[in-house]
Each structure stands twice: as C-alpha cells, then as structure tokens.
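Bumping my old thread because nobody answered last time. Still need a sequence for this structure:
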C-alpha cells in the first residue's frame, strides 16, 4: 500500500508541493493527499502517514502575541487556516507522524510549541530574504554540525532560496526545539526536535525546497525530501490497516501506540487533570456543547467514515450521530443538578452535604458497533465531571475514534485532558497495566471479565458494559400482529443485529405463532442488502469478517437440532462480509444461537404455550441486559418483566436506549451504569461535608 503524504493547502504556489512528491521515481511508493482549510477536510489526515505544513500568508499576530499592524503585513489573514493547521499539527504530534514544515510551516510549529515571531525583518533583512519578483532570493546558510539536517544533507553550508519577511524569534524558540541552520545575518533557517532520538521525525526549514531551481542537485532540497520519506517508511512497522468491510479494501493505515507512548500519554493526562477540574462546570459544559454542534456541522463526513469502517448503512450512521447529540444534550442539561453539591440536611447549626468530585484519570476502552453512542456514554460525563480521559476506540472503529478526538480538541478540550490510544488487543492489554482512577469498558463478557480481574488490585472504580442474549415475548393478546412483527424484526436486525441490546431470541404464544412467523418473514424480505453508501439500504456487511464463521456455525447447529430455516442461512456472494438475514423457526434453548451472542442478522423463534413457559425460557440465560414483552395489557407485561433479572425492560418496544434511564447489565451483561443521573455520578467520588454554621 502506498504511503500517503498529507500536504496543507496554500492559496499561493501550492502546486509545487505535490509536484515535488509526485515525481516518477516516487509514484510507486507515495501519494499526496491535499489537506485544505477551505473544505475543510482535516479528517483525511487520519489516513495519512506523514504531514507537510506548507508556506503561504502570514499567521494572525494574535497567535504569537505580535503587533496588530506591521510593515509588509498581508491584506488579509486566514484564521481558518491557522486553526486548521494547528489541529493538523496536534494530530500528527499525538500520532507520532513525521512532520516537515516549510517556511510558514516552520513558523507555525515554533508558535504552537510556545515560541514567538519577528513580524518583519526590516529593510536590511528584507533585502536578503524577501521575494521581490517572480524569482526567489538566494543566500548562504550554515548548518549545525551533528544535527538531523546536517546529517541528512551531508554538508555544513549551502545556498537556499528565500521568500519571506518574517522569521522566528531566535531568543524565543519553541519548547523542545532547537535552531539548526542560520542565514548570514543570523536569522534562524531551520528547526528540529532538541532530542530527535526520542521523538518522531520533525524538520522545519525556512526556505522552499519544493521550488528550488536546482532542486534535483541541491542537497538542501532533494536530501531533505529523501530523509523525510525515509522516516515515513521506517514507521511502517507500527501501523494498523483499516479494512472496508463492504469492499475488503484497505482504506487507511494508522500509526499505533506502544506501551511507551501510552505511559507518556497517561502521565500528561494525570498532570493536566487538576487544572481541568478547577474550571467551572459551566466552562466545561460550554466546551462540550460546542463538540455537540460540531457533530452536526460535520455529520455527513463523519457518517461516511463510520460507514466505511464498520459497514452500517449510511442513514444508520447519520442516525447514530444524531442519537449521540441527543444523549449529550441530556447530559449537558442535567449536569448542574447531579454534579453539584447536594444538601442532605440543614438546620440552624449544621449543614450536611455530599460533594461529587472527579475520579481523576479515566480509562475508556470502547466498542465498535456504536462508537459514537457508547463513547459519549463515558467520555462526555467523565469530562463534565472534571476527569481527564485516555480513550481507546476499538480497532474496528479507529477512524471514528480519531474523529472524536479531533472534534473534542476543536471544541476546546485541552490536548492533555483527552488522549486517544490507537491499536488492537495488545494496546488494550497494555492499558490494563497502567494506573487509572476509573476503568470503563464496553465489549464482550469474556474480555470484560479479563479487564475486571486485571485491574482489581488497583482498587479503582471499574464498570463493564457487556453483551446480552436479549429475549422478547409476543403474548397472545397483541392487537396488530403485523405491526408487532415489523417492529420486532427491526429490533432484531437493525445495524445487522450488531447491538448488545438487539433482540436475539423470540418466544411467541402458540395462538399467534404461525401468523407472527408469516408477518415477520414478510417484513424481512422487504429489506435491501447491499452497498451501505447507497440510499435505501437496510443491511450492509458485518463489521468483522471472523463473525461470518460464527453465524454459519450457529445456523448449522440450529438446523441439526430441528430448526426450520425460513430465509437466509448463508453468506451472500461477492466481496464484502455480507450474511443474508436469517430466520429460524421452531428454535429451542438447546441451540447455540439461543444461548450465545450472535451479533449478526440471524434470529431464532420459539413457540410457547403460556406466560410461565415464556418467563422460564427467557430467564434461562447467563446474560441479563434487556428483555421485552409485547402485549395489549401493560400490567401483564410489567408482571413478566418483574420476574426477569435484567437491567432494562421493554413493554411494546425494544432495542432502544434513553439518556434519562440508567443503562446497566446483570450477570454476564456486566455491572455499573451509564446514562441517567447514575451515569453522570459514575465518574465522581463522593465526599461527605459536615459544615457547622457560625463558627470558625
């Protein structure tokens, strides 16, 4: 797979940059991705292996505390570009991507690392450096012996081109940077990391190597590029490929974390958390409200990324993002009530209060099936409560996880208050060996049990939202069997059945059994399966290839035990991880598909004689997430649900979650709660305050 070089767009002379990397000798190994603040399309950076920050118009003086007006200032600044490239650099830094800064790009890096600028070099300086015509100025530079630049170029001096009237301030160089080249008048001409051996590739030059007239021969051009591209190739061993489940094509290659980078991130988060907690709740609410707005502004691009990596139909991806916005709104609206001090009693002499303080540093290991929804269940209330968060999206939803990271930072969440860990199972395992004040895991029972056992010795908060084998009962008194069949089919097959609260087994009273089967299958046959980007598609591919074998095995087991196949039962032909929607009648609880999670588009339906048999079969499980009853008598439904050991019960509905109600499991479905007031307070530790009045 080609390495992708992301280059930030400039209104001036942009064409030189892609041309520099698109030369014939490089085209087999590298391709250019234009990152433009005009789109904006910063999300494409997630698919890039390196970043080039290009030259162009001056940055706003406010970025470095400079004068509002100065000689040779542009007619207009580009604040959108300043913000866009700041995000790009922050992302590249967090992911350890190689960075090459050119002219303005060098100045940007210096400013973002805390350095400052000389806004104008004056008549003498401009005579040497500033472009006065179509031809760049040329002058001598001296290179620092032993620097990355000097070693790459193999010389200690050379001639470069110049086209600038600004420069970095040599006495206010950014933190962790050093100057490694100077022009003859002492102006800094190159920057790199002070300790490059411990950091990813970073090289910034004030000249324009991409448009030198002698760039094929000048080592300060072609060797700069060569060393940059070598660093891109060297990082290939730390990459994880993202595969589109609809096409089986690799759509991205992401740099993964290591145990060392995880430890560094955790240390930075731990250090930054107290300052975040010291902000008022209103400040934190306003920032997260902006995040919610950004989900709307970028919904189409976010939905496209989500569909590309997990395969859910595009409209369902849009629905998920809207659902996340609804949950965030509830949390924002109720945070003040449930996170503020709670007065328990008061009289003339004493007031007793409960204070809800942040846990501190929270680890959030999330899931792929609803990355926005299960994500906001954790990191939104965690941040609202004043915690710092190390967030690990599933390796199957990493692009979406990085989008979440980007939008949180764009909304105002400080860099060191929210960090994202990228990688597969080994990265999740490495997180279990770090110190956190709270662990919040969403995933399978098997992995959740391992997480719980691994972190128990830390005696920290641990919550696990695990799987389910959610039963549904259709009683004999339902008024409209066709409507019930359609609703419950959707509850079983929405998102390809890849929901922890999806209906996974159905029990139907014998009086309506055959009518229900007929209506259920009729509904399923109306759905379209295909390209998830196509409007009107209800079923896309499974997100995970390995689950195809699980579904095949469950179907084979059910048929061998007397199940009756009404539709589906096999993989669809062609590319992609497609499995036909499958309905098996005459199921029973001895079948694998009625006992273990399917997490796919298959359902078993069993006939029962009465409510008592239905309750007995519904309760016959190690899981306890949700259960549903369809009946015309709500009191009958409540009596049945009271007998079932589940965290959630549904009457005449299914497969839904509300931010106002706690989301919790029992038995193998986990423990702890997210959502509702319990979910807000789950990220706090309580302190009892006894306040005697009138003394002190």
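Sorry it took so long. Here it is:
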């Amino acid at each position: 797979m080609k390495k992708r070089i992301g280059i930030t767009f400039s209104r001036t002379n942009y064409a030189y940059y892609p041309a520099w990397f698109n030369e014939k000798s490089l085209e087999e190994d590298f391709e250019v991705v234009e990152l433009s603040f005009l789109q904006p399309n910063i999300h494409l950076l997630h698919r890039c292996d390196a970043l080039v920050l290009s030259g162009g118009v001056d940055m706003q003086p406010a970025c470095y505390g400079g004068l509002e007006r100065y000689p040779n200032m542009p007619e207009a600044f580009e604040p959108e570009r300043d913000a866009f490239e700041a995000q790009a650099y922050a992302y590249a830094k967090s992911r350890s991507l190689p960075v090459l800064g050119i002219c303005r790009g060098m100045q940007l890096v210096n400013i973002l690392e805390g350095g400052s600028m000389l806004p104008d070099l004056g008549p003498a300086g401009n005579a040497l450096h500033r472009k006065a015509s179509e031809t760049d100025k040329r002058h001598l530079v001296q290179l620092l012996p032993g620097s990355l630049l000097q070693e790459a170029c193999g010389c200690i001096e050379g001639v470069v081109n110049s086209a600038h009237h600004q420069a970095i301030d040599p006495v206010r160089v950014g933190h962790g940077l050093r100057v490694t080249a100077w022009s003859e008048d002492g102006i800094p001409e190159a920057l790199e990391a002070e300790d490059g051996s411990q950091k990813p590739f970073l090289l910034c030059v004030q000249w324009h190597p991409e448009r030198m007239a002698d760039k094929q021969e000048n080592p300060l051009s072609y060797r700069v590029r060569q060393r940059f591209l070598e660093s891109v190739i060297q990082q290939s061993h730390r990459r994880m490929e993202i595969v589109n489940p609809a096409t089986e094509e690799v759509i991205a290659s992401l740099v993964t974390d290591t145990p060392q980078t995880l430890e560094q991130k955790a240390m930075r988060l731990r250090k930054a958390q107290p300052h975040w907690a010291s902000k008022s709740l209103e400040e934190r609410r306003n920032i997260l409200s902006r995040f919610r707005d950004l989900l709307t502004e970028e919904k189409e691009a976010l939905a496209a990324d989500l569909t590309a990596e997990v395969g859910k139909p595009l409209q369902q991806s849009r629905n998920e993002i809207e659902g996340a916005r609804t949950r965030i709104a509830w949390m924002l609206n109720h945070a003040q009530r449930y996170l503020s001090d709670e007065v328990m009693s008061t009289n003339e002499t004493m007031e007793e209060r409960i204070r809800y303080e942040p846990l501190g540093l929270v680890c959030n290991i999330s899931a792929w099936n609803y990355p926005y929804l299960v994500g906001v269940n954790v990191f939104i209330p965690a941040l609202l409560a004043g915690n710092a968060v190390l967030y690990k999206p599933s390796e199957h939803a990493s692009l979406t996880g990085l989008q979440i990271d980007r939008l949180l930072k764009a909304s105002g969440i400080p860099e060191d208050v929210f960090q994202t860990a990228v990688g597969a199972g080994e990265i999740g395992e490495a997180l279990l060996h770090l110190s956190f004040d709270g662990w919040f895991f969403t995933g399978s029972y098997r992995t959740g049990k391992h997480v719980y056992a691994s972190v128990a010795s830390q005696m920290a908060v641990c919550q696990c939202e695990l799987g389910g084998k959610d039963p549904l009962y259709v009683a004999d008194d339902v008024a409209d069997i066709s409507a019930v069949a359609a609703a419950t089919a959707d509850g079983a097959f929405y998102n390809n059945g890849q929901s922890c609260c999806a209906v996974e087994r159905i029990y139907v009273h014998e009086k309506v059994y055959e009518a229900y089967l007929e209506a259920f299958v009729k509904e399923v046959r109306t759905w379209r399966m295909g390209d998830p980007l196509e409007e009107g598609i209800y079923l896309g591919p499974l997100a995970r290839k390995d689950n195809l074998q699980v579904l095949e095995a469950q179907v084979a087991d059910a048929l061998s035990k007397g199940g009756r196949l009404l539709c589906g039962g096999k993989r669809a032909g062609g590319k992609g991880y497609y499995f036909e929607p499958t309905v098996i009648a005459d199921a029973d609880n001895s079948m694998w598909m009625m006992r273990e999670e399917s997490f796919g588009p298959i359902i078993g339906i069993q006939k029962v004689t009465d409510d008592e048999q239905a309750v007995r079969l519904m309760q016959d499980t190690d899981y306890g997430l949700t259960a549903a009853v369809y009946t015309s008598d709500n009191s009958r439904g409540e009596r049945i649900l009271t007998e079932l050991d589940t965290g959630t019960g549904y009457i005449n509905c299914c497969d839904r979650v509300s931010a106002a109600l706690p989301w919790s499991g029992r038995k193998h479905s986990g423990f702890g709660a997210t959502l509702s007031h319990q979910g807000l307070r789950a990220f706090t530790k309580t302190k009892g305050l006894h306040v005697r009045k009138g003394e002190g």
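The chain is about 35% helix and 20% strand. Let me know if any region looks off to you.
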